[in-house]
Structures are given as C-alpha cells and as structure tokens.
Amino acid sequence: MHDTNITISAPIGRDLQGQTRAPGHLVYEALYTAILDRRLAPSTRLSKETLGRIFSVSTGTVQRALSRLAEEGAVELAPNQVASIARPCERHARELLEARLMIESQAIRLIGNRLTRGQLDDLRAMVERQRQCLAAGDHAGLIDQANRFHLRLAEHSGNPWLPDFLAKLLRRAALSIALSRSRAYSEAACDEHQAVVEALAAGDAERASQLMGRHLNNLFARLRFTPPPTEDLRAAFQGKLDSVQRRRA
C-alpha cells in the first residue's frame, strides 16, 4: 500500500477564483485531481482521519467525498476497512469505451460540414494545447485538454443533450485512464485528434466519425490493466501442488 500524498492548490472553502465551495466538493476535487496527476497511485490507502486533518474537515465530509469517488470507480470502499484508490478495471474501461463510441461517433455525424473556419481553428488550437501539455509532462492538464476537445465536438453537434451525457462519461474515463498509469494520451493521440479535425475541415463527417472511433479504440488499447490480487487460496494453488510434490520426490 502507498501513503496518502495530496497537495492542496487552493485554501479549503474557496476555489481558485475565490468563490465559496462546499468542503466535501473541495475534498472530492482535490482527490480527483491528485489521481489524474498520478500523485495518488492505485491501492493507496485513504484514511478518513488523515484526510480530515489535511483538509481541516470532519471525517463525515471526507466520507461523502470518498463515496462519490467510489461511485465513479476511483475509490474502493469496503465495510470496516480503510478506503483505497481503486485498481484499474478493464471491464469498467470497456463499458466507458462502448458508451463513448455511440455518443461521439454520432455527434460528429451530426456536425456534418457546417463548422466555420473559426470553429476549426479553435479545435486545432485545442490539439496544440494538448501537445504543449504532453511536452511539459503535465498529465492532468493533458487529460483535461483532451476532454475539452471531445466535449467541444459534442457541443458542435447541435444536440444539447449530447454534451451533458458525454461530460459525465469523460470524467469517469479520465479516472480510468489515470488509474491505468499508462501513456494513453500520447503524440499518437494528438495526431488522431488532428486527423479528425482535418476530416471535418474537408467536409467529410463520415470519415471524421470513423477516425474518432479508431482513436477511442486506440486509446483503450494503450491502457494497461493488472489482474486483481488473488483472495481465493484454493485458486492460488490450483494445479500447482502436483509439480511441487514431484520436485520433492
């Protein structure tokens, strides 16, 4: 297990713009960002008492933040046990992938060929900011910029429901990507985003949709999943005892 390691970037009770925020939301956001920034690794134990002292809040407030993260698959909560950062889950990541494929591919088809030059330039600038984050080693910033790109495309679809649905998926997908500890967003991912933009610029929404599907599948393929620890003692030794006995003979 790892130790809790969290840095608070803004005073408790206020966000970076000085606006009042609920303590539970601040704890949630701080933990969420620490996971994205890879300051909290999978299996890190999250003591409510320790977190309460770090953030100067009650353990009940911490519990609410942990419960919210558990709902998103980022934290493991078991009765009478200390919470911990979740291990990457392939099933959870694949379910997110399938949902994103349905929403994002359709969103791009709805865009068609009606993007203005200014909108296309804005998308290109978003890809450039991703490359800058990649060069700076800003992992959390890179995921944030990539998510903004995907969300902006959904906004251009003209269907106001799609961005709302996608925003929730993107937050969960960001956690899944961060927990995998892999370089899912790489130079290749930036190139894939660029290719989608240029297909839209050419007025070929169908090709852009196909490129988005390929990008999302490639993103999933770059994730790394480690098997969960074995808790079944019988399964741990299944088929192994015969070889041990032969060596002792």
Walkthrough of the structure:
The chain is mainly α. It folds into two domains: 63 residues, Winged helix-like DNA-binding domain superfamily/Winged helix DNA-binding domain (Arc Repressor Mutant, subunit A, Orthogonal Bundle), CATH 1.10.10; 132 residues, Four Helix Bundle (Hemerythrin (Met), subunit A) (Up-down Bundle). It contains eleven helices and three strands. Helix 2 crosses helix 3 and helix 6 packs antiparallel against helix 7. The relative contact order is 0.12.
Class by SSE composition? mainly alpha
The strands making up the biggest β-sheet line up spatially as 1-3-2
**Rg over alpha carbons:** 21 Å
Mean pLDDT: 85
CATH architecture of the largest domain: Up-down Bundle
Broad shape: elongated
Helix proportion range? 55-70%
Main attributes of the structure:
Four Helix Bundle (Hemerythrin (Met), subunit A), elongated, 249 residues, Arc Repressor Mutant, subunit A, mainly alpha, single chain, 3% strand, 2 domains
